[in-house]
Amino acid sequence: MAHTETPAQIARRLEKSRRWFDLIPPEGVPIRFEVAGLAGRFGAQLLDILITVVVMMAIIIVLAFLPFDIAPVVNSLAAILMLMIRAPYYILTELFWNGQTIGKRATGLRVLGADGRGLTTHAVVARNLMKEVEIFMPGTLLLVSGGLGLFWNLVLLLWIVVVLIVPLASKKRQRLGDLIANTYVMVRPKSVLLPDLSTSVSPNVFDFTPAQLEHYGRFELQTLESLLRTEAKTRGSDARRRDSLIQVAAQIRRKIGYEEPVPDSRVAEFLHAFYTAQRAFLEQKRIFGDVRDDKHHRDMDTG
Amino acid sequence: MSEVQPIRSTRFRAEREADWRALEVLIKRVESRGSHRLSFDESRALAELYRKAATSLSVARDISLDKNLLIYLESLVARAFLSVYAPQDSLSGVVGRFFGGSASAAVRRSGGVILMAFLALFLGSWVAASLFAQDPAWFYTFVPGELAGERGPGASTETLRAGLFSTEANLIGQLGVFAASLFSHNTRVALFSFALGVFACVPSLLLTIYNGLILGAFWGLYADRGLALELFGWLSIHGVTELSALALAAAGGFRLGLALLFPGSMTRKDSLRMASKDAVKLALIASLMLLVAGLLEGFARQLVTDTTLRILIGWGIGVLWLAWFLLARRRTG
Questions:
Q1: B230 near B184, Cβ under 8 Å?
Q2: Which of residues 1-30 of B touch A (CB under 8 A)?
Q3: A161, A187, A213: which is the final residue of a domain?
Q4: ipTM over the 0.90 cut-off
């Protein structure tokens, strides 16, 4: 028998698949950051490599116009320029833009000191020197791997495998350089404050008894919040949204035993009122130590 | 009908929202233009508002179930933290500190391992030179073919002498020698002996000894032909710097390896992190020295063919390095 996930299970699974870490700053209030995904980091790296290569090519082209014949040394010249542009580029951008290279800016990532005291110069230098050993040396060797013997190709393979396994096995996606420098790469937070839903209620239209508010927990409340907040975002699918609001309202009324009929035109109002009452109820319970994470009265930690 | 009292978390938000908005404005300015553009009062306001927002977050986690508010506060405090604790260094400050004392202090702290690296280098050369004295065929065992080129026991003394005093007259040729030397054998050895130090020092030690072996084999060959002094001059002009760079890189690797082998009371991870502070500086110094050695090899060695002058320049620069390591101390107090 095929097991189908309920929407709630899907929502929980998605939330669990994101990786977080709590940073403890000197002020003592833990701050949550989301760990950057592999795709984002790969994209940032690619963009940075592209930028440095373009700069290197530009310099080579300028040099080509000088009255020298650079053709015989163009390969080693390119290699030197690459090294001399690349290492300072990463170190200086991360140092002066607070953990962001241009690639990281574009993909919305940034580097963060894990000890909660900001990035140090040492951390930035260490993680980027290790990047030479971890990424660029095997990368360069890979380009010439045809000319190496079997033994060195095996060494190269082992090297690449180790370098790849470390971040994949690390919970916080730290590569070797991050481990030594004690840094994390995380998603740059964005903050949008939307209006409080509980203030947009016309008072005393719908009343709920405490018994009616016993049914739901935090998870259901916040799911309802997300549903109510979608209204501000999309106007096009208005009819569909109205339908789902009506369905949800009917489901809630059935569950809590709300007898009074609610006309379709006032469904949004009913849901707002229920949201406010439910939130006030749950927050009150919470202050007295009764934490209800969902309708099964799970605690935060279990489940 | 009387106004209903808004719920507790709504009141909480209403009381503090103005502060959050003010903080957001300040953060946006820091994020786009950097914290040094803020005035004194604004910086102070930033720190104060950050602490207020952190308190709000801590309270909101306990009393509010408004998901959007919680996410907003989390990200606001995160951004504020990043703005407040942004690195404050300037480029001149970073470079000045490195050359003015922090690099030389790392060298002084690593005296023991640097000695170890030099000893390994010397041991290798001594072994190879004495083996070569018994049987010149050892040369081929130690020196890889592409490094030896036409230099070898089979070459005539005249070829060997010409190799020591060959010059590249034009600038591009010198640049080519410079470039080639930078990506030469020694740079690779330096990089590997640093990076592989993590594996309990063994690869670094072997590499350093091996490099000594190559050196010793050449020494034996040239000494055999009565070109010892000429080779010494040829090596000195860039080798004093280059071999020291090699030893420093290996020493950096040793620091990492020793930190892993003997972590003391720390965890191995912490011990490695502590050691990396000096090791990274050693690696930076080594790469700087390799760059200088490349310049000396590419230009100075081509221009100066007098053996005495070569020795003087090479060891003179060596003394300068030593002076930097011993004398550059950060002023305290």
A1: no
A2: 1, 3-4, 6-10, 13, 17, 20-21, 24
A3: A187
A4: no
